Amino acid sequence: MVARTLNDEAVRTLDGKVALVTGGSRGIGRAIAERLGRDGAVVAVAFARDRAAADGVVERIRKDGGRAFPIQAELGRHGDAAALWAAFDAQIDQHAPGGGVDVIVNNAGIGRSTDLASLTEEGFDEVFAVNVRAPFFIVREGLRRLRDGGRIVNISSGAARLAMPEIIAYGSTKGALDTFTLNLAKQLGPRGITVNSVAPGIVDTDVNAGWLRGNAQAEAHAASLAALGRVGQPEDIADIVAFLASDDARWVTGRVIDATGGAGL
Questions:
Q1: Residue 131: DSSP 8-state
Q2: For position 57, which CATH number holds?
Q3: In the chain, helix, strand, coil percent, each to 5?
Q4: Distance CA 68, CA 90 (A)
Q5: Which residues contact 2 (CB under 8 A, 6 or more apart)?
Q6: Are 33 and 21 in contact (CB under 8 A)?
Q7: Which residues of 169-201 are buried (b: 16+ CB within 10 A; e: fewer)?
Q8: What is the pLDDT of residue 54?
Q9: Does residue 1 sit within a domain?
Q10: How many alpha carbons fall within 13 Å on the CB side of residue 85?
Q11: Catalytic residue among 170, 185, 236, 260
């Protein structure tokens, strides 16, 4: 594969755009932030606690000729969306005069590998607060900043359509996120704003590293679940998000894009 840079005219599909990526310091979020940066967007890399990781993503985007800045806001508590946008507003004019945002990617999320019998009320509340409530209010607070013709991409999961009782709460949050996507697409369509979900399957990220990496048997099993016969990579998801963020996807809205490599076919 030939490496692409911001100087390649063919990939500057987001020139003049501003993108916000939550959970942008690692895994799928990092890949999304870096891809949107290569495509020409000014990227706000939102993170909860790991500033060093977020700074690393910003540095890589800038090294590729792009523009980016980190913003910190821990999700899952009341007021988190307002805090995130306040951090965004405090910096945006330095990087994109005039403010505003064109692409919102709700990627941040947490998992709960717990079945119905073991899940606590506290655990239930936490996973819904981060995975559902935070995106809901990030969008609500962001609508006055989101320009007409903008894009919202929610990172869902194949767990929303596949029965996986061992992560029942996590799958339920992603089902709720897909319903949120559907309703937003209807509401925001008159403004030319598209809203879509991207639903990954098993992806080789730090979250899955403990059971996946260095375990040939686990990797082979994970790969066998996908029709394409391999484990997903963060870039597989980032490339789909880049398409949805671009003008090429202007006629796609209210959809859940399966990004599992054909799991469960």
A1: I
A2: 3.40.50.720
A3: 50, 15, 35
A4: 14
A5: none
A6: yes
A7: bbbbbbbbbbebbbebbeebeeeebbbbbbbbb
A8: 98
A9: no
A10: 19
A11: 170
Enter the tokens of residue 130. Answer: 């981060």
In terms of residue numbers, what domain contains 117? 12-259
Please state the domain count of the chain: 1
pLDDT value at residue 206: 81
How far is CA 8 from each of CA 31, 65, 66, 101, 131, rounded to the nearest angstrom? 19, 11, 12, 24, 36
Residue 3 lies in a domain: no
By C-alpha distance, which of 145, 202, 154, 211 is closest to 181?
154
pLDDT number for residue 111: 86
3-state secondary structure 48-117: CCCHHHHHHHHHHHHHCCCEEEEEECCCCCCCHHHHHHHHHHHHHHHHCCCCCEEEEEECCCCCCCCCCC
Q: Within 10 A of 53 (CB to CB), how many other CB atoms are there?
A: 18
The Cα 156–Cα 181 span in angstroms is 10
Residues 6+ apart with CB under 8 A from 223: 229, 230, 231
Query: Is residue 4 a part of any domain in this protein?
Result: no
Residues 4 and 34: their CA atoms lie apart, in Å, by 12
Q: Scanning the structure block, which residue is given the tokens 């996908």? A: 226
**Does some domain include residue 6?**
no
Which pLDDT does position 11 carry in this prediction? 56
Q: Which residues of the chain have pLDDT under 50?
A: 1-9
- Residues 11-37 pLDDT 10s: 589 999 999 999 999 999 999 999 999
Do 152 and 193 form a contact (C-beta atoms < 8 A)?
yes
Known active-site residue 239: no
pLDDT (0 to 100) of residue 258: 97
Q: Which amino acid is at 134?
A: A
Tokens of 86: 């306040």
